[in-house]
Amino acid sequence: MQTELLPDGTGQGLALSPPFTTSPRTATVSELVEQSELLERAVRTITPHVAYANRRASLVQLDDFQRTAATRDPLEILNELSGQGWSWRDVAALVGVTVPAITKWRRGGRIAPENRSRLARLSALMSCLTERMISDPVSWLEMPVKEGVTVSKVDLLKRDRFELVLRLATYAGEEFDAEEILDDYDPAWRNRLQDEVFEVATGTDGMPSIQLRS
Fold first, then answer.
1. Is 91 inside a domain boundary?
2. In a domain, 123, yes or no
3. pLDDT in the model for residue 64
4. Are 4 and 17 within 8 A, CB to CB?
5. Tally of domains within the chain
6. How far is 84 from 45, CA to CA, in rounded Å?
7. The pLDDT value given to residue 2
8. 35 with 18: CB under 8 angstroms?
9. Quick check: is 202 in a domain?
């Protein structure tokens, strides 16, 4: 008997045999070990497919919010982003223009279609983060992906890696291996992007603090 699982992204279905064929109450120790190994292999097999499905769904949601945002007045979006805590410097960098261009738009200047689309995408991202219960999204985006690494989530956005930020948001507050995100962002990050001067440590009061690396 086989159980159909998620699509593998190639149009083909993925099928796995059920890992447990014997009741744990009647199985021998050897059988339990064998069946647990089968289960572990099944989890390892399906994990990439689950991640692929989550990434696709997140991007579909982002696109949906972007289509809605694209119908709004760009000035309204700019004011909203400012109220959420965005600096004009970061907005300009993410949209791909200069700060003077942002100033011109705020005064009623014309926005090129491609820039309006990028502005709508940034607004859409904020909607996605709100859906994922991220409190103070801008502050969260400015935090490093991993402590001791000089890459923030804003840096991911500047590379147009919205899907990586949404993946981090999905697992925010849970145990999650951020190194997977960094490997996807830059395979050489361990050699180039780790902070060799400072580290985060737990102080005598039990609170995290930044200190010089020993």
1. yes
2. yes
3. 97
4. no
5. 1
6. 40
7. 37
8. no
9. no
pLDDT given for residue 33 in this prediction: 82
Mind spelling out the 3-state secondary structure of 81-132? HHHCCCCHHHHHHHHCCCHHHHHHHHCCCCCCHHHHHHHHHHHHHHHHHHHC
SS3 content of the chain, % helix, strand, coil (to 5): 55, 10, 35
Bridge partners, 77 (sequence order): none
Distance CA 28, CA 24 (A): 8
The structure tokens listed for 143 are: 């935090």
- pLDDT score for 57: 92
Pairing state of beta strands 198-202 and 13-16?
Answer: unpaired
The secondary structure of residue 164, as a DSSP letter, is H
Please indicate, yes or no, if residue 196 is contained in any of the structural domains: no
Supply the pTM of this predicted model.
0.71
Give the list of residues 6+ apart from residue 140 with CB closer than 8 angstroms, or none: 129, 134, 153, 169, 172
Residue 202: CB atoms within 10 A of its CB come to: 9
The pair of structure tokens assigned to 28 is: 């021998």
Question: What pLDDT digit, counting tens, does each position of 45-82 carry?
Answer: 777 777 788 889 999 999 999 999 999 999 999 999 99
Dihedrals phi, psi of 213, to nearest 5 degrees: -65, 140
Q: How far apart are CA 67 and CA 135, in angstroms?
A: 24
- Across the chain, which has 214 residues, the per-10-residue mean pLDDT values are 41 50 67 82 77 88 97 97 97 97 96 97 97 94 92 95 94 82 90 63 60 54
Domain residues for the domain of 154 are 3-171
Phi-psi region of 133 (alpha: psi -120 to 50; beta: other; left: phi over 0): left
- 123 Cβ neighbours under 8 A, 6+ residues apart: 65, 66, 69, 72, 77, 80, 81
